[in-house]
Design goal:
8 strands, 7-stranded beta/alpha barrel, five-stranded parallel β-sheet, three-stranded parallel β-sheet, alpha/beta, globular, about 450 residues
Length: about 450
């Protein structure tokens, strides 16, 4: 049997505007660009919602109605949910409609699509809790499986989230991790862990996400019949075909005129023509199949770039400088007990900000350039660094205001002032005259 597990990542960051050094101390609004550029968050959300989210959701809803066996899994970052709530609530309703079918699973993740697990475990736990609460509020479900930002994964992460109660976790099926083994099975982390590990079949996933419209590709054009044959070949050689990709693949990265929606609409029917094929959600896969072995990942991997490591976000000095400065402010931000400060700081933890500072070239560089709304990585760093300086300014101001106020138990409440009356003035003049006469008598006595 080959069970197809479709997983889609839905995420939009709060992009920062081109924040100048002259804005420090004067402008504390970092994410409110209103220009026609690709750092206008409202504009981008509307564009992607039109080209991808609502269009693809209609296709999936039709597939769910047509095929009772069809299922899929999503993760939606807290930041994209917030933007849909603010800018396009009708789009959020289409995601709710999918979840209401009972055959669409929602995974947990960090609310702000952050790298917090690498820098602050308390913040990681806080963001996961915030995300779980948001999913419960918006969709009425409680996630039981987990995916970390950009599929960043290691043995340490698996152990940590198992203690948090999750049944399964996603990771990249990287060749240097798997070796001779296949990603088409369920695995577990080392050490007798009970959490289940689903590994992305990156070849088949990337055939859809990256190569679908490439006329230079030997297998172009990719048809649903051809792809179903590749899935069928897994029967007898695996249990799972994990197709993990950005949801923006449909309509945004692969435009409608490439035929991507026709492909998606036809694919489940072609896959289900084989009697041994079906579809599962992430948690269903973890519950249905037994691990065939352990996969040891002692260092962090991800699904980004050729290296499948952290270099997309932490590959140069400006990225390290920015993220270390950010997390060095964590304690001060939280001690300030200022909700706006904390919200701004958390929006700045989103991994995209560091992705925009990547200076890779060659094949990966083209991908980074495509996703970067700034002209250069250095422009992204300068704006971000200026914002961190303003954040420090706000923290210093907050502390200064706090130290100028005496503790409540030592404070003295001044008597309220009142306007002077005519009687007050007359009485004051009499007092002056009496005091003056008494002074003259004392002088005469001398």
């Amino acid at each position: 049997m080959a069970s197809v597990c479709f997983y889609f990542q839905v995420h939009q960051p709060y992009r920062t505007k081109k924040y100048r050094v002259f804005d420090i101390g004067h402008d504390h609004h970092y994410f409110n660009d209103k220009s026609d550029q690709d750092i206008n968050n409202e504009k981008i959300l509307h564009k992607v919602a039109t080209k991808c989210y609502r269009r693809t959701n209609r296709v999936l809803l039709e597939l769910l109605e047509r095929y009772p066996q069809f299922k899929c899994t999503f993760s939606l970052s807290g930041t994209v949910i917030e933007q849909m709530e603010e800018f396009s609530p009708e789009t959020l309703e289409t995601f709710r409609a999918l979840v209401k079918t009972g055959r669409v699973e929602i995974l947990d993740e960090t609310y702000h699509h952050s790298l917090s697990f690498l820098y602050s475990k308390p913040e990681f736990e806080d963001q996961v809790a915030l995300h779980r609460a948001k999913v419960q509020q918006v969709f009425g479900v409680t996630p039981t499986s987990f995916r970390n930002t950009e599929l960043i994964y290691s043995n340490e992460l698996a152990s940590y989230i198992e203690k948090m109660g999750y049944k399964a976790v996603l990771a990249e099926g990287a060749d240097h991790i798997l070796g001779w083994r296949s990603p088409n099975f369920l695995y577990s982390p080392p050490g007798g862990s009970n959490i289940r590990l689903l590994l992305k079949n990156y070849r088949l996933s990337d055939d859809i996400a990256f190569r679908f419209s490439s006329r230079d590709w030997v297998d172009w054009p990719l048809t649903s019949e051809k792809f179903a044959q590749w899935v069928n070949a897994v029967n007898g050689n695996g249990n799972l075909v994990n197709l993990f990709m950005d949801y923006e693949t449909f309509g945004e990265h692969q435009w409608e005129d490439t035929g991507i929606f026709d492909f998606l609409l036809a694919l489940p029917g072609e896959i289900l023509k084989h009697p041994d094929n079906d579809f599962v959600t992430v948690t269903e896969a973890a519950e249905r199949y037994q691990p065939v072995g352990e996969v040891d990942v002692p260092y962090f991997i991800s699904w980004a770039d050729i290296e499948r490591d952290l270099s997309a976000w932490l590959g140069n000095s400006i990225q390290h400088e920015a993220i270390q400065k950010l997390y060095s402010l964590e304690a001060r931000v939280k001690d300030a007990h200022d909700p706006k400060l904390l919200d701004d700081w958390r929006k700045l933890t989103t991994s995209d900000h560091f992705y925009y500072m990547c200076t890779k070239w060659f094949a990966d560089g083209d991908v980074h350039k495509y996703f970067n709304p700034y002209n250069t990585p250095y422009e992204a760093f300068i704006a971000y660094n200026n914002i961190l300086h303003d954040l420090e300014y706000r923290l210093d101001h907050h502390r200064a205001v706090g130290t100028h106020h005496a503790p409540k138990h030592l404070s003295v409440t001044p008597k309220p002032k009142r306007e002077k009356t005519k009687e007050d003035v007359t009485q004051a003049r009499r007092t002056v005259r009496r005091t003056s006469a008494k002074t003259k008598e004392q002088r005469a006595g001398h």
